[in-house]
């Protein structure tokens, strides 16, 4: 994919606007964060972009093609990891391929190749409850990637993890991203996470939710550990806080 | 150490109670406190069971055949009804209340009707069993279908799944435990329904045997066949549990995991 665009999206429930006139775009290979407090309408926007929800106004375009209200074009990782408890990890992860019509055995073969890269080797035949939170998240990420290696929507992918595991996952994620170049739109309400991971940040606020500002994080990638305690990091953080408060 | 001892006690406590009751019962009838012709002693019952063993087996074969046939058809019917009701909400709204209503009619009340309509053969018996067994299956599955996490359906839809795929990958597997809970009930219903239908007419079956020994006032045989029937039900229910464990390995491993944590 080259470009994902959402233009002038408005969604209302029971007459009241939840999000209003939201326009965002995602370019090839970018990681872009959507940052905002709980309830501002981040998930609602994702439901629109993924095609699960028809907006009251606005359109979604992928490479110039109108995909408004059409599911199956961009991969979507929901707020919960949503691994099916009754499927083994490999069957969970290969699910998007099976849905697309691939034979089960073939889907498993294709999927198995990625287990190493995603740090999941040895978990193929296990069930989700046997994995740690970090592992489950990786499995869910791999499933998302197998659905589309072009563009992914991740709804708070790391929010359920403890802060140390989270840091490890951030580093791992940036590492993997360098190789697979998946264009990613990511929701978070963790400001630090947004600054560490993103090329750009859309800050959402208000009721109804709107994009308040687009913050560009102009730092080389992958960002080293010192970045988190650097002068410029604090500057970004202070700026974002001033928008939100 | 103490914990282990307690857990053993826990496990065998129900056996101890049963054993105590048996002893008490034996004493009551052996000493003549309760007259023997009314309440045969446990030993008498066992003797009656052994004495009539070949005959009981023969009758059991008939009863089990009926139960099995009825249960199979009832399960398929229950499954079909649940799937149709889930697929067409209008069917759910219009038929569900009716279905619940039919279940308030007691089995014993419709059994004679069925005999009048269908005679003394296999047909009325299997029909009765079907009528009593399809319900727990259908209700169990419908419950399961309705309690599926809508987000997991959303996830599949986002992947571009169609309704059939949502059904096979989400709805059906997440409803399996509900299905087996229903099946467990239906299995015991099937035996009871078979026996009841045999009371009203027929030439073979445990129900027929029961009617005959009742007419000859053989209380020991009566008790023997009652216990035999409940033993069969228990074994069949155990069979369902084993089947469930085989079909749902994730559920079983979850259980052992939990046990290990305690
Ligand atoms: N189906 C619905 N019907 C009515 N209101 C809804 C529905 N879904 C969401 N909302 C409302 O829309 C608002 C935005 O919800 P949304 O889930 O998009 O927030 P969010 O930014 O993702 O929050 P969080 O960070 O807690 O996940 C909330 O106030 C919520 O109550
Ligand atoms: Mg949300």
Oligomer: heterodimer
CATH homologous superfamily identity of the largest domain in chain A: P-loop containing nucleotide triphosphate hydrolases
User: What is the CA-based Rg of chain B, rounded?
Assistant: 23 Å
CATH class of the largest domain in chain A: Alpha Beta
Q: What about the largest sheet of chain A?
A: 6 strands, mixed
End-to-end distance of chain A: 36 Å
Helix % of chain B is: over 70%
Give, in order, the helices and strands of chain A.
Answer: EEEHEEEHHHHEHEHEEH
CATH topology of the largest domain in chain A: Rossmann fold
CATH superfamily of the largest domain in chain B: MetI-like
Low-confidence stretches of chain B: none
- Determine the structural class of chain B based on helices, strands and strand pairing: mainly alpha
In a nutshell, what does this entry contain?
Helices cover 33% and strands 26% of the residues of chain A.
Structure write-up:
The complex is a heterodimer of chains A (245) and B (262). Chain A has 245 residues and is α/β, with parallel strands linked by helices. Chain A has helices at 42-49, 89-93, 95-99, 104-112, 133-147, 163-180, 191-197, 231-244; strands at residues 3-13, 16-27, 31-35, 57-62, 65-66, 75-77, 151-155, 183-188, 200-205, 210-216. Chain B has 2 domains: 1-39; 41-261, MetI-like (MetI-like fold), CATH 1.10.3720. Chain B is 85% helix and 0% strand. Chain B contains 12 helices and no strands. In chain B, helix 3 packs across helix 10 (206-215), helix 5 (107-118) crosses helix 6 and helix 10 packs antiparallel against helix 11 (219-247). The radius of gyration of chain B is 23 Å and the shape is flat. The model of chain B has no long low-confidence stretch (mean pLDDT 88). Classes of the chains: A alpha/beta (245), B mainly alpha (262). At the A-B interface, helix 3 of A face helix 7, helix 8 and helix 12 of B. The structure holds adenosine-5'-triphosphate (ATP) and magnesium ion. Magnesium ion is lined by residues 42-43, 79, 155 of chain A.
């Amino acid at each position: 994919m080259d470009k994902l665009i959402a233009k002038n999206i408005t969604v209302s429930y029971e007459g009241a606007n939840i999000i209003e006139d939201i326009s965002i775009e995602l370019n090839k290979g970018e990681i872009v964060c959507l940052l905002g407090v709980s309830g501002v309408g981040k998930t609602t926007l994702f439901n629109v972009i993924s095609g699960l929800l028809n907006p009251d106004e606005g359109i979604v375009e992928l490479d110039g093609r109108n995909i408004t209200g059409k599911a199956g074009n961009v991969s979507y990782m929901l707020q919960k990891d949503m691994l099916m408890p009754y499927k083994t990890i490999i069957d969970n992860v290969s699910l998007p391929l099976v849905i697309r019509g691939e034979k089960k055995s073939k889907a498993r073969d294709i999927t198995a190749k990625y287990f190493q890269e995603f740090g999941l080797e040895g978990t193929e035949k296990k069930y989700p409850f046997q994995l740690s939170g970090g592992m489950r998240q990786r499995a869910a990420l791999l499933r998302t990637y197998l659905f589309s290696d072009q563009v992914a929507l991740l709804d708070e992918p790391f929010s359920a993890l403890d802060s140390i595991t989270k840091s490890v996952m951030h580093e791992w994620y940036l590492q993997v991203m360098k190789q697979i170049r998946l264009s990613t739109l990511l929701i978070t309400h963790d400001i630090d996470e947004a600054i560490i991971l993103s090329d750009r940040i859309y800050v959402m606020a208000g009721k109804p939710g709107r994009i308040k500002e687009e913050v560009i994080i102009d730092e080389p990638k992958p960002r080293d550990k010192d970045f988190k305690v650097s002068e410029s990091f604090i500057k970004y953080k202070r700026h974002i806080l001033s928008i939100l408060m | 150490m103490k914990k282990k001892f307690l857990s053993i006690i826990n496990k065998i406590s129900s056996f101890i109670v049963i054993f105590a009751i048996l002893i008490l019962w034996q004493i009551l009838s052996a000493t003549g406190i309760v007259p023997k012709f009314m309440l045969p002693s446990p030993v008498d019952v066992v003797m009656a069971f052994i004495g009539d063993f070949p005959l009981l087996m023969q009758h059991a074969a008939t009863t089990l055949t009926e139960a099995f046939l009825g249960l199979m058809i009832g399960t398929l019917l229950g499954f079909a009804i649940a799937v149709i009701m889930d697929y067409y909400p209008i069917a759910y709204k219009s038929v569900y209340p009716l279905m619940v209503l039919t279940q308030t009619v007691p089995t014993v009340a419709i059994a004679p009707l069925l005999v009048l309509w269908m005679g003394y053969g296999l047909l009325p018996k299997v029909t009765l069993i079907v009528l009593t067994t399809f319900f727990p299956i259908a209700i169990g599955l419908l419950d399961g279908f309705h309690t599926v996490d809508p987000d997991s359906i959303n996830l599949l839809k986002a992947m571009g799944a169609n309704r059939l795929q949502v059904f096979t990958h989400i709805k059906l597997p997440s409803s399996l435990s509900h299905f087996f809970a229903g099946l467990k009930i239906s299995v015991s219903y099937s035996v009871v329904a078979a026996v009841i239908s045999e009371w009203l007419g027929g030439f073979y079956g445990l129900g027929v045997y029961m009617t005959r020994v009742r007419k000859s006032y053989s209380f020991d045989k009566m008790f023997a066949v009652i216990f035999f029937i409940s033993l069969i039900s228990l074994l069949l229910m155990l069979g369902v549990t084993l089947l469930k464990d085989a079909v749902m390995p994730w559920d079983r491993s979850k259980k052992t995991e939990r046990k290990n944590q305690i």
